[in-house]
Design brief:
heterodimer; A: about 300 residues; mainly alpha; two-stranded antiparallel ribbon; 13 helices; 2 strands; about 0% strand; B: about 300 residues; globular
Chain lengths: ~300, ~300
């Protein structure tokens, strides 16, 4: 009896998981292999379309090395890569500077307005990203409200062209777009923080600053890392913020390189190579995120 | 300001700073400033959708001109605008209907099924959760265009991409819920004679319902805001949803009809979330094993 039921359970769980596993294999892993086959594949000499090569033994690295030689310090793609790193780093630091105090206040000190504040913090999630960018496009136009505000009713003439290649606008746009994605995980982590531990540190004589630095921060380091990763990773593939708020090659990031080469005929292989590069650059952070999440599961169960 | 022992009471900013019971006014200020910064631009964009004139920066009186008043350019009369809205809602419904059951079954199966294969599948699912969206989008685009598949670009490819990207949401939420429920209810049911499948169907599944429902709402709200996947996998303007429409026209002298379209999308997401939250509260009315606040609804516990 026991034997039989155990056998049945053994079959039940794989059957339940099978559709999801199959879906991920078909539409998540397989497409990534297609990218490899295209990057290391051939190009049709007449139509300039990509011809994927499925057999790894026949892979031809020409297109990949073509891109690789152009991302070095002298290559045409180098500035965009540096810009990506600088913009994403700056935006992430700014995000953390905003998100941490807000998450800390709402999770630990908000009192009876907590529910309302959480609803307002979550609201940007359910407002389309494009709409939030559109809102800034409207505000930052040459005759927009922002310039009018700067002129203090005609006192000054700021006359700044915000929407044509201003790095500051792009970075702040990224912050505006992604900071909600940082606040929520931080909120969840800080909310779980044990209050008794903090009280103990105060009882044992630590002042506010040192109990924050020596108790709060170390306890929520995994949360902070996960929250930073959750904002960094999508920023690395972002091109639309840039397109809407700058639309200038002066601020192009690696996402723009991908987007431009996907749409250009004959550059499919290059687009694939950029995808491979971003994937390689993000694989370690992603694995780190997965490990933190899995460890969190173990602690909770 | 609180009352302290008389000899220690200090007036002025220094005393305020040292008072350990002072209210967290600085943090509260940062939080409020953040909320204003994050929500006010969107509210202004919504306001200008009701503008009587063509401008998105000069207020010229209230009207519904851009919703249905204008005979050619309003959302109601301009076919390209309302097909975008319909496409968005269609993608939202279809993707949610596929992604949620897939993710829930996956979560239950992987949670119980021990071994290398399910933990590998779990890692794959978590990576699909954090991979930069543009990478998945380009990979799927390459797969659809370079293989002879039974589906082409357009709604079917968009739904497949969205399901792949969203399936992790219900899976993560349901697994977290399974961890808090624990195995004891199911074991009790089986001790009382229920088979494994019956215990799952009649004990575990009802207890999972709030988490499943919350993830349904989250997936829907997320899908209708999606941009990267649906843009690459669309096939001409007939399958371009609202986000793509905004992206295409935001920098090309749009009318407030674009704001009106974005506002309608916002209303759809808002309605889904508010109704969803009210239903969620009803579902968890007598359940004290789960959080009932808006944070629990958004999957932050």
């Amino acid at each position: 009896m026991l034997q039989r039921s155990r056998q049945r359970t053994n079959r039940l769980w794989p059957v339940l998981a099978a559709p999801g596993v199959g879906w991920l294999l078909l539409f998540f892993l397989a497409p990534l292999y297609v990218v490899l086959a295209i990057v290391f594949g051939q190009r049709d000499p007449v139509f300039r379309t990509a011809v994927p090569v499925w057999n790894p033994l026949q892979w031809d690295p020409t297109q990949f090395t073509y891109v690789l030689t152009r991302i070095g310090p002298d290559g045409v793609y180098f500035p965009a890569l540096v810009r990506t790193v600088v913009y994403v780093a700056a935006a992430s630091i700014l995000c953390l500077c905003i998100a941490f105090p807000v998450a800390y206040y709402v999770s630990r000190l908000a009192g009876r307005h907590k529910g309302l504040l959480i609803a307002l913090l979550i609201a940007p999630f359910w407002i389309s990203y494009m709409m939030r960018m559109l809102a800034w496009v409207n505000l930052l136009q040459n005759d927009g409200l922002f310039n009018r505000m700067l002129s203090f009713g005609g006192l000054f003439d700021p006359n700044v062209d915000w929407l044509t290649g201003q790095p500051v606008v792009v970075i702040l746009g990224l912050v505006y777009g992604y900071v909600p994605y940082m606040i929520l995980p931080l909120y969840a982590g800080l909310d779980r923080l044990s209050q008794s531990m903090l009280e103990a540190s105060r009882d044992l004589g630590a002042n506010r600053v040192s109990s924050f630095v020596r108790v709060t921060l170390p306890m929520c380091r995994p949360t902070i890392m996960a929250a930073v990763l959750l904002t960094c990773l999508p920023m690395l593939g972002d091109y639309f913020t840039n397109d809407l708020l700058s639309a200038s090659p002066k601020t192009a990031m690696v996402g723009n390189l991908i987007n431009d080469s996907v749409q250009a005929p004959g550059q499919t292989g290059q687009a694939g190579a950029f995808v491979m590069l971003v994937l390689l650059a993000t694989v370690l952070p992603m694995v780190y995120y997965v490990r933190v999440t899995l460890r969190g599961d173990e602690v909770r169960t | 300001m609180s009352v302290m022992t008389p000899e220690k009471t200090l007036r002025g900013p220094v005393g305020w700073w040292r008072d350990p019971w002072r209210r967290p006014r600085i943090l509260a200020g940062i939080t409020i400033a953040y909320l204003v910064w994050s929500l006010l631009p969107v509210l202004i964009a919504v306001m200008f959708s009701f503008n009587d004139g063509r401008s998105r920066t000069n207020w010229q009186g209230f009207s519904f001109r851009w919703y249905w008043g204008d005979q050619t350019k309003s959302v109601w009369h301009d076919a390209s605008l309302h097909t975008a809205l319909l496409q968005t809602l269609k993608l939202g419904l279809l993707s949610t209907l596929i992604a949620v059951p897939l993710g829930v079954l996956f979560a239950i199966g992987v949670d119980r099924w021990r071994g290398r294969l399910p933990s590998g599948a779990n890692v794959l699912m978590l990576i699909s959760f954090v991979i930069p969206e543009v990478l998945l989008a380009v990979a799927l685009l390459f797969m659809v265009t370079s293989l002879a598949l039974p589906f082409g670009l357009g709604t079917s490819a968009q739904v497949i991409g969205l399901v792949t990207y969203q399936v992790a949401y219900p899976a993560v939420l349901v697994r977290a819920r399974l961890a808090t429920i624990g195995p004891q209810y199911e074991e009790a049911a089986m001790d009382l004679g229920a088979s494994q499948l019956d215990a799952l169907r009649r004990v575990t599944l009802p207890m999972l319902m709030p988490a499943i429902f919350a993830s349904t709402v989250l997936v829907f709200a997320d899908v209708i805001d999606d941009f990267v996947l649906v843009r690459y996998l669309s096939n001409g303007s007939a399958t371009e949803p609202v986000s793509v429409k905004i992206y295409n026209t935001a920098r090309a002298a749009p009318t407030p009809a674009l704001n009106a379209l974005a506002t309608l999308l916002l209303l759809a997401a808002f309605a889904a979330v508010v109704i969803g939250y009210l239903v969620f509260r009803r579902m968890t009315r007598n359940d004290d094993t789960t959080g009932r606040g808006i944070a629990a609804f958004a999957g932050e516990t």
